[in-house]
Amino acid sequence: MSFIDSIRKVRRNSDEVKVGGSYRYIGPHRVIETAKVLKVQVDTFGIPHVHFSISVDGDHLTGFEDYRTLGISSFSERYRQAV
What we know:
With 83 residues, this protein is an alpha+beta fold. The protein has two helices and five strands; from the N terminus they run αββββαβ.
């Protein structure tokens, strides 16, 4: 993937990630991560980051909640399913 392609990918993904939106990742062993987008903010290098709360539930887990930040492309790759 060229540098230009990676910029285009970030722009496409940034349009798809909405503040207030919820997205889900279902992992192995039925671990379910649900992310709620709190804000999308561009850093000093021009890279957009997603600030989100996450709740994790599963068969052998007692659910927990946390706050995390990921680059928008990483967020979009992991949390593909809109809820």
